[in-house]
Design brief:
The chain is of the alpha/beta class and about 350 residues long. It has helices at about 5-20, 40-50, 70, 75-85, 105, 120-130, 155-165, 205-210, 225-230, 260-265, 315-330, 350-355; strands at about 25, 30-35, 60, 90-95, 110-115, 140, 170, 185, 195, 255, 270-275, 285-290, 305-310, 335-340. Strand 8 (about 185) and strand 9 (about 195) form a beta hairpin. The protein binds threonylcarbamoyladenylate (TXA) and magnesium ion.
């Protein structure tokens, strides 16, 4: 459920961010670990807290479209259309950067990722920072997901607390993130937009906003293997950490199994936690319903657990990370995720995260 920020905490957050500190803030996708995007010392703290490799670029969050030109240049018309259609919201645009944008933000590339988040608390913080900034200098908050590098993104303040609580200056509790998986990232640096990371704004949503005589959006072409190959070779011009094959992964070994093999697979194991959109046929499993917030559920260790996931893709994305965090606490030998529709643009963002969660760790 959504929680608002008190005036006192808003002032505290602004003070910390303005003086070079780092604050975990709720956004509609996942919690972000925010710092002043113009302050290199503050930005270094993000990398240190997350243990994130220094060459992974950060998304800059801005308050409104008027600030776009401060950060980006040569913005194509279609990018303006996308911005009008989907901001504030779960979409990041990769654009040619302005010269002053710091290398630590861009990973040394000539592009910058920009997003206007929709969450009312993220909005309030960005608006307050804009109001208190001196002169014409536009503001921006660099914010990667507020998790240690390689782990599942947080969708509740308690996820951030458990992972990074002692490494950051403040965590603002805004309730559960409504979208639940990270933003759709769109490369806007050539004639045709291209999806770099699928999310809950789908290819179809995007194509509807583009001119009917345009070529439309280029869908993402990666499979978990090819994106790893891309990263291993030095030929990739874009570093999208979301493209690492093993990313967003629970600590427990995780596998993705097709629906028709699920029961068979489970019956060969004694100890597991399943995430499935169907009710179990197997007896003896302890059933959890993903519609019940995990804060109301006591995770007792049981050998066979079954988390009933929503049928609808929006509801599924909303609870996915919460349930993966929860499943991790059950200390099973394996987390078994029942596969979701393949080659279906509504499920593309979710399936991308499932492939990453279940990719063998190196
Ligand atoms: O929903 C989201 O996007 C969340 C919330 C907090 O806004 N943020 C997020 O940040 O997921 P992060 O750092 O965990 O993932 C951002 C992705 C990374 O994979 C990064 O490599 C990519 O965006 N990225 C950022 N700037 C880029 C650029 N200039 N070119 C290519 N990829 C970029
Ligand atoms: Mg992340």
């Amino acid at each position: 459920m959504y929680r608002d920020i008190s005036k006192k905490q808003l002032i505290q957050a602004i003070e910390i961010l303005s003086s070079g500190g780092i604050v975990a803030i709720p956004t509609e996708t996942v919690y972000g670990l925010a710092a002043d995007a113009t302050n290199p010392t503050a930005l270094k703290k993000i990398f240190a807290a997350k243990n994130r490799p220094a060459d992974h670029p950060l998304i800059v969050h801005i308050a409104n479209v008027d600030q776009l030109a401060y950060w980006a240049q040569e913005i194509p018309d279609y990018a303006h259309k996308l911005a009008t259609a989907f901001w504030p919201g779960p979409m990041t645009l990769i654009l040619r950067k302005q010269d002053h944008v710091l290398d630590i933000i861009t990973g040394g590339q000539n592009t910058v990722g920009l997003r206007i988040p929709q969450h009312p608390i993220a909005q309030k913080i960005l608006q307050s920072l804009s109001a208190s900034s001196t002169g014409n200098q536009a503001i921006g908050l660099a914010a990667p997901s507020a998790n240690s590098f390689g782990q599942i993104s947080p969708t509740l303040a308690k996820h951030v607390q458990q992972d990074l609580g002692n490494k950051i200056d403040l965590i603002i509790d805004g309730g559960i993130c409504s979208v639940g998986i990270e933003s759709t990232i769109i490369d806007c640096t050539s004639d045709q937009p291209k999806i770099l990371r699928p999310g809950m704004i789908s290819e179809e949503d995007i194509n509807k906003t583009l001119d009917s005589n345009s070529q439309g959006i280029l869908p993402i072409t990666h499979t978990s293997n090819t994106s790893q190959d891309l990263l291993d070779s030095n030929t990739t011009p874009l570093r999208v950490s979301g493209c690492l094959a093993s990313h967003y992964a629970p600590k427990t070994q995780t596998v993705l199994i097709s629906a028709n093999q699920l029961e068979n697979y489970c019956s060969s194991l004694n100890n597991y936690t399943v995430l499935s959109r169907h009710k179990p046929k197997l007896k003896k499993v302890k059933l959890y319903d993903s519609r019940l917030p995990t804060s109301f559920v006591n995770p007792t260790e049981h050998p066979q657990n079954w988390i009933l996931m929503p049928e609808d893709h929006h509801a599924y994305a909303h609870s996915l990370y919460e349930q993966l965090h929860f499943a991790d606490q059950l200390n099973s030998q394996q987390i078994i995720i029942e596969d979701v529709p393949e080659n279906n643009m509504h499920w593309a963002g979710i399936r991308d995260r499932l492939l990453k969660a279940s990719h063998p760790k190196n």
